[in-house]
Specification:
The protein is of the alpha/beta class. 43% of the residues lie in helices and 16% in strands. The two termini are 30 Å apart.
Length: 221
C-alpha cells in the first residue's frame, strides 16, 4: 500500500531531507515549495516525488492538491523574519504579519482544505515547532510567538479531530539556511545536518503515540 504525503518547504533543509527519506520508504510525496526552480533541481529526478511549486500562504494551494486520501501532512515551510533578529520593540508589523501568515495562517488554511482526505485515511498532521515556542530568547519574539501559536492550533486540532494524529515536532537546532540567517556572520557548523534529525520524526510516525508536542531529543532517547 502506497502512502500519500504532502510536505511543504520541501526544497531545502529539513523538508528536503524528509522528502527524500519518505520517498525512499516508498511514499508518494507531493513536495511543495515557493522556489520551483530549486524544487526541480533538488527533487526533479527523485522517484515517488511529485513537484508542486506553490506558497503555503496561497489559499488556492490546498484545493490544487486535491487527493482523495492523505496519510501525512507535514508543515515544514517557515519564515524567520528580519535578520538580524529585532527586539519586539522594533519589530516591523509587516514583517511579523509575514511570519504569522507562513507559520500559522497558511498551514491552518492548508490543513482545513485537506482535512477530508486526512480523515479518510485516519492520517497524521505534523507542524514543525521550535524551542523558541516555549522559551523566551532575546530577538526571537516574532518567530517564537508564531511557533507557539502553531503548537496551540495543532493541540486544539488534535482534540477536535480525535481520529487523526497531530504532532508539533521540535527538531532542535539544525544547520540550515534559515538558522544561518538567525546568526549572520557566525559559524553554525556545530549544528547537526537536517538529515541526521529525520530519523527521529520517522520513528514518531512509525510508533504513532498520542497526539502532542514532541522533541527529537525525547523521541530518540
Amino acid at each position: 500500500m502506497t502512502h500519500t504525503t504532502v510536505v511543504t518547504g520541501a526544497g531545502t533543509g529539513f523538508g528536503l531531507a524528509l522528502t527524500r527519506a519518505l520517498a525512499a520508504r516508498g511514499h508518494r510525496v507531493i513536495a511543495c515549495a515557493r522556489d520551483g526552480d530549486r524544487l526541480r533541481t533538488e527533487l526533479g529526478s527523485t522517484p515517488g516525488v511529485e513537484l508542486h511549486p506553490g506558497d503555503v500562504t496561497d489559499p488556492g494551494l490546498g484545493p490544487a492538491l486535491a487527493v482523495p486520501e492523505l496519510d501525512l501532512l507535514v508543515h515544514n515551510a517557515g519564515e524567520l523574519g528580519p535578520s538580524p533578529l529585532p527586539h519586539l520593540a522594533d519589530y516591523p508589523a509587516d514583517a511579523l504579519r509575514a511570519v504569522l501568515e507562513t507559520t500559522v495562517l497558511g498551514p491552518l488554511q492548508l490543513t482545513q482544505a485537506l482535512l477530508p482526505a486526512l480523515r479518510a485515511a485516519h492520517g497524521t498532521v505534523v507542524t514543525l515547532s521550535s524551542d523558541a515556542a516555549v522559551e523566551a530568547y532575546e530577538g526571537w519574539g516574532g518567530y517564537g510567538l508564531a511557533k507557539a501559536a502553531a503548537d496551540h492550533w495543532a493541540a486544539v486540532l488534535a482534540v477536535e479531530e480525535p481520529a487523526l494524529r497531530v504532532y508539533a515536532f521540535d527538531p532542535g537546532d539544525m544547520r540550515t539556511a534559515m538558522h544561518q540567517r538567525a546568526f549572520p556572520g557566525e559559524d553554525i557548523s556545530d549544528r547537526p545536518e537536517p538529515a541526521t534529525v529525520v530519523p527521529a520524526l520517522l520513528r514518531l510516525l512509525d510508533e504513532r503515540p498520542a497526539s502532542g508536542r514532541y522533541t527529537a531529543a525525547a523521541v530518540t532517547a
